[in-house]
What we know:
By secondary structure, the chain is mostly helical. Helix content is 65%, strand content 9%.
Amino acid sequence: MLARVLRLGVPALVAMVLAGCGASGGSPSVPVFGSFFPAWVICAVGGVVVAVLLRALLIALRIDEHLPAPPLVYLCLAISGGIALWMIWSGAA
């Protein structure tokens, strides 16, 4: 039984690990000032910027004071903004 699990499990594990490797030969990266940055880093920073802009908007609309857990709300906004930017960047949206 264990031999069968290992015989089927190891190739499946290798296939899952290698599934992220693309034929293009690298991760999506962007040259910024001569240095290559992974695209996800740029999307994460963009998500934080989106959260900061939305925080300013919520403060201006006086909604910020009614949020039950502001740090959690702004963390979720940053993550959502980063995912949205990644989807726009990669063409999934």
